[in-house]
């Protein structure tokens, strides 16, 4: 992946074409590598904002035309989900009668580089989604009937709420009696908390995690994983965020 910073604020169409041609040449030289294209951040305004928008559109069209993978960084900058209204908000500005997307005000800050932690989390989740789709995930959920037909022993659900501050609930369904473990890990793979280790009969279960580790210490904010596995070695993994 090639990551732009602020170059597209002033790059010309010819400059972007040179970039696209260079990446295409690299792709031909390394056919076993999957290249991911990327748009530039949406922080610029005025004439630079319009130019950046046009250059991003140039990259988007190249990806559409040539069936390339695109991590649309600029689009992620301009969209924010409002938990109060439960609606997505799209931030735009106007310069010389041209409306163009800009970074949403919710992401104005310098917590991490020149944006907010919330913006980083949104982009991080998008990376996971993109990689999962590339690996073959349909992007759709599956229901219990499909799970039973696929002969799975259990189904681990998304934790709620997520992100969370004080506590979250993890639900799972057991379809075949088995010994299970439900464990929380940090991003380095270290065990943080063993939530459950017991034998379960078929049924629906839930465990609450209050953000404390095995030593009853509150963990720091960030991304954590939770894994449900059984004595047969089968496992499913979820991801959650403490804010």
Give the overall form: elongated
Beta-strand content: 25-35%
Poorly predicted runs of 5 or more residues: 144-150
Q: Gyration radius, to the nearest Å?
A: 22 Å
Range of helix content: 25-40%
Biggest sheet architecture: 4 strands, antiparallel
Order of helices and strands: HEHEHEEEEHHEEEEEEE
What structural class do you assign from the helix and strand content?
alpha+beta
Number of domains: 2
State the end-to-end CA separation. Answer: 28 Å
- How many β-strands, per DSSP? 13
The number of helices is 5
Major sheet strand order: 10-9-12-13
Mean pLDDT: 89
Description:
- The chain has 243 residues and is of the alpha+beta class.
- The chain has two domains: 128 residues; 97 residues, Immunoglobulin-like (Sandwich).
- Helix content is 28%, strand content 31%.
- It is built from five helices and 13 strands.
- A four-stranded antiparallel sheet has the order 10-9-12-13, with no helix packed on it. A three-stranded antiparallel sheet has the order 7-8-11, with no helix packed on it.
- Strand 1, helix 2 and strand 2 form a beta-alpha-beta unit.
- The longest helix is centred in the N-terminal third of the chain and has 21 residues.
- The radius of gyration is 22 Å and the shape is elongated.
- The relative contact order is 0.10.
- About 3% of the residues have low confidence.
């Amino acid at each position: 992946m090639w990551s732009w910073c602020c170059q597209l604020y002033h790059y010309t169409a010819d400059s972007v074409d040179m970039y696209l041609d260079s990446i295409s040449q690299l792709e031909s030289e390394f056919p076993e590598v999957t290249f991911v294209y990327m748009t530039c951040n949406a922080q610029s305004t005025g004439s630079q904002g319009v130019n950046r928008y046009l250059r991003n559109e140039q990259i988007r069209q190249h990806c559409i035309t040539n069936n390339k993978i695109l991590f649309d960084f600029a689009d992620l900058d301009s969209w924010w989900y409002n938990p109060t209204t439960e609606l997505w908000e799209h931030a735009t500005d106007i310069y010389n009668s041209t409306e163009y997307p800009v970074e949403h005000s919710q992401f104005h800050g310098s917590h991490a580089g020149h944006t907010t932690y919330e913006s980083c989390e949104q982009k991080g989740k998008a990376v996971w989604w993109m990689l999962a789709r590339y690996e073959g995930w349909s992007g759709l959920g599956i229901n219990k009937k499909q799970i039973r037909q696929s002969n799975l022993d259990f189904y681990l659900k998304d934790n709620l709420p997520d992100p969370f501050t004080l506590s979250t609930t993890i639900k799972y369904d057991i379809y075949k009696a088995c010994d299970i473990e439900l464990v929380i890990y940090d991003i380095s793979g270290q065990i943080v908390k063993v939530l459950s280790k017991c034998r379960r009969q078929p049924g629906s279960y839930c465990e609450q995690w209050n953000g404390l580790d095995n030593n009853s210490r509150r963990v720091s904010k960030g991304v954590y994983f939770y894994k449900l596995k059984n004595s047969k070695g089968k496992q499913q993994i979820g991801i959650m965020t403490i804010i």
